[in-house]
Design brief:
The protein is α/β, with parallel strands linked by helices and 546 residues long. It has three domains: 387 residues, TIM Barrel, CATH 3.20.20; 60 residues, Oligo-1,6-glucosidase, Domain 2 (Oligo-1,6-glucosidase, domain 2); 61 residues, Golgi alpha-mannosidase II (Immunoglobulin-like, Sandwich), CATH 2.60.40. It has 16 helices and 20 strands. Strands 11-10-9-5-2-1-13-12 form an eight-stranded parallel β-sheet. Helix 6 runs parallel beside helix 8. It is globular and about 80 Å long. The protein starts with 9 loop residues before the first strand and ends with a strand. The protein binds 1-O-alpha-D-glucopyranosyl-D-fructose (TEU). 1-O-alpha-D-glucopyranosyl-D-fructose (TEU) binds next to loops. It comes from Microbacterium oryzae. One of its GO terms (biological process) is oligosaccharide catabolic process. Belongs to the glycosyl hydrolase 13 family. InterPro entries: GH, GH13_cat_dom, O16G_dom_2.
Length: 546
């Protein structure tokens, strides 16, 4: 395998509960992942990243961990994990696992100990317990809000039955935040990293990497408008994101990784508004990569895409790392739906019943295929979310009683949350649960129309989205697109994105009129049928000379 594999890798995100279910209980598992490893090898990816499978009460689909050194029985055992890792490595596929360091589950033994311990104790110091404000401490210690909606503080009852301190949870109340200024917390995570590195994992996707350290004294968050009127701070000065101290933590992690052979990699999940701010997590002595969320959140518009691509190609290489690219994951509306939504629709954490308009599935899929055709031509590493290779749309019409995302509950149904991008994968059109599970069980119902999107149907169809992914990934490798330099091609109308990478010229039409194809070139690959000498609306194509 090539050194520094992560620089050019195509990395496929597996959401274990929805990928493949070997046990037949309707929830995907690690043995299911192993059983589908050949399909992953055939797709032509370099690595997989698995969303959490560690022991958890599953209040936030495993992003609430009770035991960081074991597999939740829902997903199997450590033996199943080892078998999965071996099956991946045997096919030359690297394995990255998800680590959730910002918070644990409230069922974690440390938090349970903290609940019964006294204020000021060592047990409480591992988390962020504070006295409330106002008479009797009835008000939360500050004004921070949970990302999932509602306040970020919950009050506990002390051992003597009296109303007690409050603890911080930036996410659900079942996800208490650790205090990362504590040496004990840091040592515990170094040990957890060692545990998985010794087992042979190739790296970690670090959840909420911009969190962990909070501003000293936990001050109120002053909204940007107020900050401005007070002549205050930079727009994005949030007291719980991106505090300088967090970089010390990752320097310790990187030093640990360097003790291991091979190149193990760290990828930051740090939601920042620009590539430049995202790249703050990437350093030769910190993380190797960070997800390019500014790219993911860019609408289907040539000028906007050019700006974000150019910004990314400047920001990441400046810190010695390749840019990364991503269009979907388990937290956002699938791009086959999202790209057909208006710019003012909510993008992250799911649209809601009150959202303006429904995405047009035909437009959405055309744009998704075109956007992917652009993405795989970009230098750097690309992330793929399971099911996008089948062109799966967001499942918006789920029955309310099936929904499980905490966002749905915490916003009282104002936002659907993220279940719509987490529906189990259709593998075989004719099988129960479309082959997701032998028993036909599925923790979220699969839309009936997904029969036509099943992998076996698409595999035999050269015009399918799956075949497009196969072609793009193969040509990306053959043309070394991930490791060469991009050059903009000028002279095209505003609504056309045009660039050259090596021998390949990419033309993407985001406008409302067809554009002529470049002269004297032949088509290598296209996201959809091209007209006679034209690149139609919502289509992208790769051309080479001759
Ligand atoms: O998501 C992190 C997340 O939701 C935030 O980064 C947020 O979107 C952003 O800060 C808004 O500004 C991760 C996981 O991917 C997600 O599934 C979990 O629910 C969450 O962490 C909690 O662990």
């Amino acid at each position: 395998m090539t050194p520094e594999w992560w620089r050019t890798a195509a990395i496929y995100q597996i959401y274990p509960r929805s990928f493949a279910d070997a046990s037949g209980d309707g929830v995907g598992d690690l043995a299911g992942v192993t059983s589908r490893m050949d399909a992953l090898a055939e797709l032509g990816i370099d690595a997989i990243w698995l969303s959490p499978f560690m022991t958890s009460p599953q209040r936030d689909a495993g992003y609430d961990v009770t035991d960081y050194r074991d597999v939740d029985p829902l997903f199997g055992t450590l033996t199943d994990f080892d078998a999965m890792l071996e099956a991946a490595h045997a096919r030359g596929i690297r394995v990255i696992i998800d680590l959730v360091p910002n918070h644990s589950s409230d069922q974690h033994v440390w938090f349970q100990e903290a609940l019964t311990a006294a204020p000021g104790s060592r047990e409480r110091a591992r988390y962020l317990f504070r006295d409330g404000r106002g008479p009797g401490g009835h008000e939360p210690p500050n004004n921070w809000q949970s990302i999932f909606g509602g306040p970020a503080w919950t009050r506990v009852t002390e051992a003597d039955g009296s109303p007690g301190q409050w603890y911080l949870h930036l996410f659900d109340s079942s996800q208490p935040d650790f205090d990362w200024t504590q040496r004990e917390v840091r040592d515990e995570f170094l040990d957890i990293l060692r545990f998985w590195l010794d087992r042979g994992v190739d790296g970690f996707r670090v959840d909420v990497a911009h969190g962990l350290i909070k501003e000293d004294g936990l001050p109120d968050y002053i909204q940007p408008e107020d900050a401005d009127s007070m002549g205050g701070e930079a727009e994005d000065d949030v007291p719980y994101w991106g505090r300088p101290g967090v970089h010390e933590v990752y320097r310790e992690w990187r030093a640990l990784l360097e003790e291991y052979d091979g190149d193990r990699a760290l990828c930051a999940e740090a939601w920042r508004p620009t590539a430049r701010e995202t790249a703050l997590w990437v350093r030769p002595d910190e993380m190797h990569q960070a997800f390019n969320f500014p790219y993911m959140m860019t609408e289907w518009d040539a000028a906007a895409l050019r700006t974000v691509i150019a910004g990314s190609l400047e920001a990441f290489p400046a810190v010695g790392a390749p840019a990364t690219w991503v269009l979907s994951n388990h937290d956002v509306i699938r791009h086959a739906s999202r790209l057909a939504l208006g710019a003012d629709s909510p993008q992250g954490h799911g649209i809601g019943p009150l959202s303006p308009g429904k995405p047009d599935p035909v437009v959405g899929l055309r744009r998704a295929r075109a956007a992917t055709t652009v993405m795989f031509a970009l230098p750097g590493s690309a992330y793929i979310y399971q099911g996008e290779e089948l062109g799966l749309p967001e499942a918006i019409e789920l029955p309310d009683e099936a929904r499980q995302d905490p966002t749905w509950f915490r916003t009282n149904g104002e936002r659907y949350g993220r279940d719509g991008c987490r529906v189990p994968i259709p593998w075989e059109a004719g099988a129960p649960a479309f082959g997701f599970s032998a028993t036909g069980a599925s923790w979220l119902p699969q839309p009936a129309e997904w029969r036509a999107l099943a992998r076996d149907v698409q595999r035999d169809d050269p015009a399918s989205t799956l075949s497009l992914y196969h072609d793009l990934l193969r040509l990306r490798r053959e043309e070394s697109l991930a490791s060469s330099d991009l050059e903009w091609v000028d002279g095209w109308p505003m609504h056309v994105l045009a660039f050259r990478n090596g021998r390949v010229t990419v033309i993407a039409n985001t406008g409302s009129e067809d554009v002529p194809a470049p002269e004297g070139m032949r088509v290598l690959c296209a996201s959809g049928p091209l007209g006679e000498g034209v690149v139609p609306v919502d289509t992208a194509a790769w051309f080479i000379a001759g």
